[in-house]
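Chapter summary example.
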Amino acid sequence: MNVLQGLQPAAVFTAFEELSRIPHGSGNTAGAADYVAAFAARHGLRSVQDEWHNVIVYKPGSPGREAEPPVILQAHLDMVCAKQPDVTFDFTRDALRLQTDGEWVWAQGTTLGGDDGAGVAIILAVLARQDLSHPPIEAVFTSDEETGMYGAAGLDFSLLRGKRMINLDSEEEGIFTVGCAGGVRCTVTLPMAAEACTAPAYTVAVRDLQGGHSGAEIHRNRQNANRLLAQTVAALGEGVRLASFAGGKLDNAIPREASCVVCTHLPAETLAAAARQAQQTARAGEDTAACVTVTPAPTPAAAWTAADTARLLTFITTAPAGVQAMCADLPNVVETSLNMGVVACDAAGVQVHFALRSSVESAKAALLERVLQTARACGGQGTTAGAYPAWEYRAHSPLRDTLVNAYTAQYGKAPQVIVIHAGLECGLFCQKCPGLDAVSIGPALEHIHTPAERMNVASVGRSYEFVCRCLAAL
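The structure predicted for these 474 residues follows.
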């Protein structure tokens, strides 16, 4: 069933729906890469696919423009996989359940993958179009952007000649991004010892927080479910032992839910009072639907020792969190932040996963050291992965000037040009391709990285038209 049939531009929404039928969460993009390569073959275009599941598609310039310098169009194939707690869905096997009312497109109960499926679909529609004036195009589709930009990091940049790049991984129409923060991921492991347990057990759960993108929305100071849960349990004081603790799905998404099993002889009303206080605190901010509950649970055979419980709660509640510094030269732009995205436990102990970002390399390094020092003080150790560079603002950018003029001609007003705190692959591309002139654009998407994600139909159409206009003007 073609749910998006009738939406315009048809070529864009057809490509988006075809992609949505292929599981393409981070770490599982082989099928999406094969789809892009097959799409290129159907349209008589050469493509290169690598071991990272990156794909580069080459389209010659339109008649009369074959010898011009190429332009890079770039988007990433992977999507963030998040769903409502009560929804049964397997992101490794199931097709997204697309829905539309003609104005918006969303997926039933899950993330939509408009980030960055919208960019992928727009580029594919450009590649298929035959009546467009354009220079040679190098269309680059990268993998695993959401979990560390691993695809872009592994890309063979010698396959590219372009020195101008339009990245289609932004989510606000009319806003051009021309710089972004760098980042790194950190995992802290705290070993935990267990002992026999006879105390009554309770499940303490936090749910229905706003969540959101840890770069784009970290400044909104929304509650972090992992931290709120730990604060709730820590408020109970001594006499509490944890048997489990889990929260969040991705380190780059502000966690919306978390839960733990608490073993204690404290009165049930004491736990309920702590939950009510935590809920009240959360609802005083943006998390107006926050819910913190305490329910009886079967007593486990063993629980973590009181000392290890205290160490874990101390680490989660005292490790740096949220915005750490704002940019001195750019109003209302975050300079440095981190997000405690995931807490999980296994036989080795508890793992706490962070995403750190900063536009200042020394500040990023200093923040990482603070996390590692806090971990060591609590008996844990940290490892890092997925580091990527900041994308520095260029004072002189002919590409930016061309896009601004094209936007003004199409919309009758100038776009907003910004530097953002969220990470984009443009930083890696600029590092690997010295002299690269890049701009990031995209259609209107809302609530990305959450099950409430949706994509504006008219905005997708205007954005596709804008890309076509830009290619003609280059």
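To summarize the output: The domain at 10-180+390-473 is CATH 3.40.630.10 (Aminopeptidase).
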